[in-house]
Design brief:
670 residues; alpha+beta; Immunoglobulin-like; ten-stranded antiparallel beta sheet; seven-stranded antiparallel beta sheet; hydrolase activity
């Protein structure tokens, strides 16, 4: 996590790219009109959630897969446990009954939040990607039954939303753009439909999505419409629909929603205009503010729009906001959002550990935004942040068993923690009333192979590390073997014809520039350029080894982060570490660590590597002293004995048995 300047980020400036411009909205012929049929060949598990982009420095690739190892286990757990658990919970929570109300198969009341349909769509998307990996009778049955249900439930004019379609309980359709989430739900429907086509060659859900988009275009696509959704998501989905179908009306609609934001159309909502990113236009915005998930979903869509239109003002806007995020508002774990009431970004350096909201969905949103920033620019530091999110705040959001979840992800929890809301629970829960995070996690793990590699002309870029393989244009296969994230050693080989492919490997910021490259056992001095080790042409006979340093690193925060002053945190490779009371006999709420700790590394598989260091406990009398004492009173002192303190990967905390137990990422320094 350390760049050359000693920070956890930073690698140069993005380049702008010359790409084609859009014609005027609704003028001229399009390659495919929204709502018309689409005949595409089935591509099973190859093209991912982001297809070929017009203006990217880098392109996503097809043909990646995992070999047995840590990432394959994440995917297998998702398939065998998390998705099946989600199916049961969608039934239990009423999401599916809400849709059955629309076809007369259920006559009870609406249940859950008004955006409950979106969790069904996210689950269908994850299932489509998984069926593209491997057939499953149970997953196929759920997919087919609920695609049929959606076809039957859709209104003749294309409208589909169980919260509004019957005129109750939330009113008539299109009556609340600030909080109604109708366009947000449509965005997730579109993404599920795209997954059905790309993974399965199944166009049924695409027809449903296209009819709904066509309705939205008729109602709100004109220049005189002020409409956009209070919760962004539809923007990135519409751009991807354009990439799939070639229908430029979807792109124009996405552009309209982006251009209109900032007019104050949804600013009347409960939390004020910043919450909805409605206080300024997209191109005028310089800071990350408001609801964290909304802000980053919006920015992912803005990057998508930039990639297809070449509008440099859009890129400049998201680049400014990215710089603000990295410099002022990002938790060490990749978490975002320091305010619970509105799930929002705080002020610059407002990063309290105990009150970190750091929603799991926000970690996923930042991953999605970061991937698009990388595709647009080719910069490795965007992948660094994406990696930090995945291995910390995102993986912390799900239990090792795969069926319990955190909604928020604080960096400290006290042993007496109590919560009045599910979102701030001290232990992982099996589901939530607002259950956006679990099906979002399903989507992440079902598509993880699609972000391992990318292509820059003939160069294959290894963005993320693990046991994986990539089909090459020449007919051969690039194989990567690694015990990452527990080990920083990568082994590359080629089976078959590599064609003209060359290889580049990301130099992760956490390696602090320390890497050893060997080709066929011989050291090859290699210097990273713009965060990439360019290793040249791939040859069948060659074996390439890249080894990154993974020593523990101790960090302190910027002095402006008042809540973190006087504390340090520890990382190893991409993993942030924490003290979990379940691992320790000493009281982690009273620990003090030395200024220059020495670590013993106990290697484990996956996230299982533990760190041990000597620490001290504050004298127990210090914790029973008055809440406030005079500044000239004797300060609390640490006990004389040094005791071994165990640190574990933050992503794994809270798996050590029932009940709330203390945890800390930032540790007081003696």
């Amino acid at each position: 996590m350390g760049a050359a300047d000693g920070s956890i980020h930073g690698r140069g400036d993005p380049a702008h790219h010359r790409v084609r411009r859009l014609p005027a909205p609704h003028h001229g012929r399009t390659r495919r009109r929204i709502g018309e049929g689409l005949m595409l060949p089935a591509v099973r598990g190859h093209v991912g959630p982001v297809g070929a982009v017009a203006g990217g420095a880098v392109q996503a690739v097809t043909g990646a897969r995992f070999a047995p190892g840590f990432h394959a286990e994440l995917v297998a757990r998702n398939r065998a446990v998390t998705i099946l658990h989600g199916i049961r919970m969608l039934e239990h929570a009423g999401n599916l009954r809400n849709l059955r109300r629309l076809v007369g198969a259920y006559d009870g009341p609406f249940e859950g939040p008004r955006f409950a349909d979106s969790d069904v769509y996210k689950t269908l998307e994850a299932i489509a990607w998984e069926l593209g990996h491997q057939e499953s009778e149970e997953l196929r049955r759920f997919y087919d039954e609920n695609v049929t249900l959606l076809i039957d439930a859709q209104r003749e004019d294309g409208y589909l939303d169980s919260a509004y379609q019957r005129g109750e309980p939330f009113g008539e359709p299109w009556s609340d753009f600030a909080h109604g989430h109708e366009l947000y739900c449509l965005g997730h429907l579109v993404q599920a439909a795209i997954a059905g086509v790309r993974a399965l060659g199944d166009e049924r859900l695409l027809g449903v999505a296209q009819r709904f988009v066509a309705l939205v275009d008729r109602l709100f696509g004109g220049d005189d419409s002020p409409v956009y959704c209070g919760h962004p998501e539809i923007e990135t989905a519409l751009v991807e629909l354009y990439r799939l179908t070639g229908d430029e009306r979807a792109l124009h609609l996405a552009e309209a929603f982006v251009r209109r934001r900032g007019s104050g159309f949804v600013a009347h909502g409960d939390f004020g205009p910043q919450y909805y990113q409605d206080d300024a236009s997209v191109v005028e915005t310089a800071t990350m503010r408001g609801h964290a998930v909304r802000a980053m979903y919006l920015n992912a869509g803005v990057v998508d729009l930039h990639l297809e239109t070449g509008d440099s003002a859009l890129w400049d806007a998201v680049a400014r906001q990215w710089a603000d995020l990295i410099a002022h508002r990002l938790y060490l774990t990749g978490g975002t959002g320091s305010r619970h009431r509105d799930e929002a970004f705080g002020d610059a350096y407002e990063l309290p550990s105990e009150r970190a909201y750091a929603e799991t969905c926000a970690g996923i949103a930042l991953m999605n935004w970061a991937w698009r920033m990388y595709l647009a620019s080719g910069r490795a530091d965007y992948v660094d942040v994406m990696e930090r999110c995945l291995y910390n705040v995102v993986l912390a959001g799900i239990s090792e068993s795969g069926d319990r979840f955190f909604y928020s992800n604080p960096l400290q929890l006290r042993s007496d923690h109590g919560a009045s809301q599910q979102e701030s629970a001290g232990t992982r829960l099996d589901w939530f009333w607002c259950a956006c995070c679990p099906p979002n996690l399903m989507r992440v793990f079902a598509t993880l192979e699609h972000v391992m590699f990318a292509r820059r002309d003939d160069e294959i870029q290894v963005a993320h590390f693990g046991n994986a393989a990539l089909a090459l244009d020449g007919g051969g296969t690039l194989e990567m073997r690694s015990d990452f994230p527990s080990d920083g050693r990568l082994l590359f080989s080629v089976a078959g014809d590599a064609g003209a492919a060359t290889l580049a490997v990301r130099m992760p910021a956490w390696s602090e520039g320390c890497a050893v490259v060997r080709v066929d056992g011989l050291d090859r001095p290699t210097t990273a350029v713009d965060g990439w080790l360019h290793l040249g042409a791939l040859a069948v006979s060659s074996n390439i080894e890249v080894e990154f340093a993974m020593d523990p690193v101790v960090w302190r925060a910027h002095p402006g982060a008042d809540a973190l002053r006087g504390t340090v945190a520890v990382t190893r490779g991409p993993l942030v570490y924490c003290a979990d009371q379940a691992d320790n006999t000493l009281d982690v709420e009273r620990i003090v660590v030395p200024t220059d700790p020495v670590f013993d590394v106990e290697l484990g598989q996956g996230l299982g590597t533990l760190l041990r260091l000597e620490a001290q406990e504050l004298d127990v009398s210090a914790t029973s002293s008055p809440l406030y004492v005079r500044a000239d009173a004797p300060a609390p002192i640490a006990g004389p004995a040094e005791v071994a303190l165990v640190l574990r990967a933050y992503a794994t905390w809270g798996n050590g048995g029932p009940g709330v137990h203390a945890m800390k990422v930032w540790l007081p320094r003696g």
